[in-house]
Amino acid sequence: MDGQNNRTLLPGDFIYKDVNGDGIINGMDERPIGYPEGWAPIMSFGGNIGLEWKGIDLNIDFAGGAMQGWRQNYELANAYHGNGNSPEYLLEDRWHRADLYDPNSEWIPGRYPAIRKGEFSYNNKNSDFWLHNVRYLRIKNLEIGYSLPVWMLKPIHAQKIRIYANVSNLCSFDNVHQFGIDPEITAAAAVVYPQQRTFLVGFNVTY
Protein backbone atom coordinates (compact mmCIF):
# COMPACT_ATOMS: atom_id res chain seq x y z
CA MET A 1 0.00 0.00 0.00
CA ASP A 2 2.88 2.41 0.68
CA GLY A 3 4.73 1.55 -2.52
CA GLN A 4 7.53 -0.06 -0.46
CA ASN A 5 6.03 -3.49 0.22
CA ASN A 6 4.36 -2.07 3.34
CA ARG A 7 7.71 -1.69 5.12
CA THR A 8 6.80 1.80 6.36
CA LEU A 9 3.32 1.00 7.66
CA LEU A 10 2.53 1.53 11.35
CA PRO A 11 -0.44 0.62 13.56
CA GLY A 12 -3.25 3.08 12.92
CA ASP A 13 -2.38 3.68 9.27
CA PHE A 14 -5.31 3.69 6.88
CA ILE A 15 -6.17 0.63 4.83
CA TYR A 16 -7.50 1.36 1.35
CA LYS A 17 -9.65 -1.01 -0.63
CA ASP A 18 -8.32 -2.40 -3.92
CA VAL A 19 -11.60 -1.62 -5.70
CA ASN A 20 -10.61 -2.79 -9.18
CA GLY A 21 -8.75 -5.85 -7.91
CA ASP A 22 -5.47 -5.29 -9.77
CA GLY A 23 -3.33 -5.68 -6.64
CA ILE A 24 -2.24 -2.02 -6.69
CA ILE A 25 -3.57 0.88 -4.62
CA ASN A 26 -3.64 3.95 -6.86
CA GLY A 27 -5.94 6.47 -8.52
CA MET A 28 -7.72 3.70 -10.42
CA ASP A 29 -9.31 2.61 -7.14
CA GLU A 30 -10.87 6.01 -6.46
CA ARG A 31 -14.64 6.35 -6.70
CA PRO A 32 -16.98 9.36 -6.26
CA ILE A 33 -17.61 10.10 -2.58
CA GLY A 34 -19.37 12.94 -0.84
CA TYR A 35 -20.30 16.28 -2.37
CA PRO A 36 -18.15 18.61 -4.55
CA GLU A 37 -15.38 20.53 -2.79
CA GLY A 38 -14.94 24.28 -3.17
CA TRP A 39 -18.50 24.83 -4.37
CA ALA A 40 -21.37 26.66 -2.76
CA PRO A 41 -23.70 24.34 -0.82
CA ILE A 42 -26.08 22.43 -3.05
CA MET A 43 -28.81 23.21 -0.52
CA SER A 44 -28.99 26.78 0.81
CA PHE A 45 -31.68 28.25 3.00
CA GLY A 46 -32.41 31.24 5.19
CA GLY A 47 -35.12 33.10 6.99
CA ASN A 48 -36.11 36.00 9.17
CA ILE A 49 -37.92 36.33 12.48
CA GLY A 50 -39.47 39.65 13.47
CA LEU A 51 -41.26 40.26 16.77
CA GLU A 52 -42.63 43.41 18.39
CA TRP A 53 -44.28 43.91 21.77
CA LYS A 54 -44.93 47.09 23.76
CA GLY A 55 -42.18 49.07 22.07
CA ILE A 56 -39.68 46.22 22.12
CA ASP A 57 -38.69 44.75 18.74
CA LEU A 58 -36.54 41.78 17.85
CA ASN A 59 -35.24 40.84 14.39
CA ILE A 60 -33.19 37.74 13.58
CA ASP A 61 -31.75 36.87 10.17
CA PHE A 62 -30.32 33.41 9.70
CA ALA A 63 -28.82 31.44 6.83
CA GLY A 64 -27.65 27.89 6.37
CA GLY A 65 -26.39 25.34 3.95
CA ALA A 66 -25.91 21.61 3.45
CA MET A 67 -24.61 19.12 0.91
CA GLN A 68 -21.19 20.74 0.58
CA GLY A 69 -17.87 18.87 0.60
CA TRP A 70 -14.87 20.08 2.62
CA ARG A 71 -11.61 18.18 2.70
CA GLN A 72 -9.54 18.40 5.86
CA ASN A 73 -5.98 18.97 4.66
CA TYR A 74 -2.59 20.67 5.16
CA GLU A 75 -2.28 22.24 8.64
CA LEU A 76 -5.55 20.65 9.75
CA ALA A 77 -4.49 17.11 8.78
CA ASN A 78 -0.67 16.98 8.93
CA ALA A 79 1.01 17.48 12.28
CA TYR A 80 3.70 20.21 12.13
CA HIS A 81 2.89 20.89 8.48
CA GLY A 82 5.51 23.17 6.94
CA ASN A 83 7.48 23.08 10.22
CA GLY A 84 4.66 24.96 11.91
CA ASN A 85 2.48 24.26 14.91
CA SER A 86 -0.57 21.96 14.98
CA PRO A 87 -4.13 21.94 16.29
CA GLU A 88 -4.42 20.30 19.68
CA TYR A 89 -6.60 17.45 18.38
CA LEU A 90 -3.90 16.39 15.90
CA LEU A 91 -1.38 15.92 18.70
CA GLU A 92 -3.56 14.36 21.40
CA ASP A 93 -6.02 12.09 19.58
CA ARG A 94 -3.64 9.98 17.48
CA TRP A 95 -1.79 6.68 17.60
CA HIS A 96 1.38 6.99 19.68
CA ARG A 97 3.76 5.02 21.84
CA ALA A 98 2.97 4.74 25.54
CA ASP A 99 6.52 6.01 26.19
CA LEU A 100 7.59 8.51 23.55
CA TYR A 101 11.25 7.77 24.37
CA ASP A 102 10.89 4.00 24.11
CA PRO A 103 10.37 2.77 20.51
CA ASN A 104 9.40 -0.66 21.86
CA SER A 105 6.61 0.49 24.19
CA GLU A 106 3.02 -0.41 23.39
CA TRP A 107 0.89 1.55 20.92
CA ILE A 108 -1.93 3.73 22.28
CA PRO A 109 -4.84 4.02 19.78
CA GLY A 110 -6.21 7.35 18.56
CA ARG A 111 -8.29 8.81 15.76
CA TYR A 112 -5.36 10.00 13.64
CA PRO A 113 -2.33 8.03 12.38
CA ALA A 114 1.02 8.24 14.13
CA ILE A 115 3.31 11.21 13.53
CA ARG A 116 6.26 10.53 11.24
CA LYS A 117 9.41 12.43 10.56
CA GLY A 118 9.33 14.09 7.17
CA GLU A 119 6.57 14.15 4.57
CA PHE A 120 4.39 11.06 4.37
CA SER A 121 1.41 11.24 2.05
CA TYR A 122 0.10 7.67 2.25
CA ASN A 123 -2.51 8.44 4.92
CA ASN A 124 -3.48 11.71 3.23
CA LYS A 125 -5.05 10.23 0.12
CA ASN A 126 -8.57 11.45 -0.43
CA SER A 127 -11.06 9.33 1.49
CA ASP A 128 -14.24 9.64 3.48
CA PHE A 129 -12.04 10.03 6.58
CA TRP A 130 -10.87 13.46 5.42
CA LEU A 131 -13.92 14.50 3.38
CA HIS A 132 -16.74 16.07 5.42
CA ASN A 133 -20.30 16.90 4.43
CA VAL A 134 -20.66 20.43 5.82
CA ARG A 135 -23.96 21.43 7.40
CA TYR A 136 -24.53 24.69 9.19
CA LEU A 137 -27.07 27.21 10.42
CA ARG A 138 -25.74 30.68 11.20
CA ILE A 139 -27.35 33.67 12.90
CA LYS A 140 -26.21 36.32 10.45
CA ASN A 141 -27.77 39.27 12.21
CA LEU A 142 -29.63 39.85 15.46
CA GLU A 143 -31.03 43.19 16.54
CA ILE A 144 -33.09 44.16 19.54
CA GLY A 145 -34.51 47.63 20.00
CA TYR A 146 -36.77 49.68 22.19
CA SER A 147 -38.90 52.63 21.06
CA LEU A 148 -39.55 55.20 23.76
CA PRO A 149 -43.22 55.90 24.57
CA VAL A 150 -44.80 58.90 22.90
CA TRP A 151 -45.23 60.88 26.13
CA MET A 152 -41.44 60.97 26.59
CA LEU A 153 -40.94 62.53 23.13
CA LYS A 154 -43.13 65.60 23.57
CA PRO A 155 -40.47 67.79 25.27
CA ILE A 156 -38.16 67.47 22.23
CA HIS A 157 -40.97 67.33 19.63
CA ALA A 158 -39.74 64.03 18.19
CA GLN A 159 -41.97 61.49 16.45
CA LYS A 160 -39.90 58.45 17.41
CA ILE A 161 -36.74 57.57 19.32
CA ARG A 162 -35.47 54.00 19.08
CA ILE A 163 -32.49 52.57 20.98
CA TYR A 164 -31.00 49.36 19.61
CA ALA A 165 -28.19 46.80 19.93
CA ASN A 166 -27.04 44.76 16.95
CA VAL A 167 -24.65 41.84 16.45
CA SER A 168 -23.56 40.31 13.13
CA ASN A 169 -22.35 36.71 12.76
CA LEU A 170 -23.39 35.92 16.30
CA CYS A 171 -22.87 32.16 16.14
CA SER A 172 -22.97 29.10 13.92
CA PHE A 173 -24.40 25.66 14.57
CA ASP A 174 -22.37 23.30 12.38
CA ASN A 175 -20.53 20.00 12.22
CA VAL A 176 -17.01 21.35 11.61
CA HIS A 177 -16.51 23.60 14.67
CA GLN A 178 -14.18 21.00 16.23
CA PHE A 179 -11.65 21.81 13.50
CA GLY A 180 -11.74 25.52 14.32
CA ILE A 181 -12.98 26.57 10.90
CA ASP A 182 -15.76 28.74 9.55
CA PRO A 183 -18.32 26.55 7.73
CA GLU A 184 -18.70 29.20 5.02
CA ILE A 185 -14.99 29.16 4.19
CA THR A 186 -13.92 26.32 1.92
CA ALA A 187 -10.13 26.59 2.35
CA ALA A 188 -8.81 23.12 3.23
CA ALA A 189 -6.25 24.50 5.68
CA ALA A 190 -8.51 27.31 6.99
CA VAL A 191 -5.57 29.72 6.77
CA VAL A 192 -7.81 32.62 5.82
CA TYR A 193 -9.22 35.44 7.88
CA PRO A 194 -12.60 34.36 9.28
CA GLN A 195 -15.80 36.36 9.16
CA GLN A 196 -15.84 38.94 11.93
CA ARG A 197 -18.40 39.21 14.68
CA THR A 198 -19.37 42.85 15.09
CA PHE A 199 -21.38 44.61 17.79
CA LEU A 200 -23.22 47.90 17.38
CA VAL A 201 -25.17 50.04 19.81
CA GLY A 202 -27.03 53.12 18.66
CA PHE A 203 -30.22 55.10 18.44
CA ASN A 204 -32.48 56.63 15.81
CA VAL A 205 -34.35 59.90 16.21
CA THR A 206 -37.23 60.76 13.86
CA TYR A 207 -38.68 64.29 13.73
What does this structure look like?
The protein has 207 residues and is mainly beta. It has a domain at 40-71 and 130-207. 2% of the residues lie in helices and 35% in strands. It has one helix at 88-92, and strands spanning 43-53, 56-71, 96-97, 107-108, 131-147, 160-174, 198-206. The chain has a five-stranded antiparallel sheet, with no helix packed on it. Strands 3-4 form a two-stranded antiparallel sheet. Strand 1 and strand 2 (56-71) form a beta hairpin. The mean pLDDT is 88.
The dominant shape is elongated
Helix residue percentage: under 10%
Record the strand order, biggest sheet: 1-2-5-6-7
**C-alpha Rg (nearest Å):** 26 Å
> Got a strand count?
7
The residue-averaged pLDDT reads 88
Determine the N-to-C terminus distance.
Answer: 76 Å
Individual helix count: 1
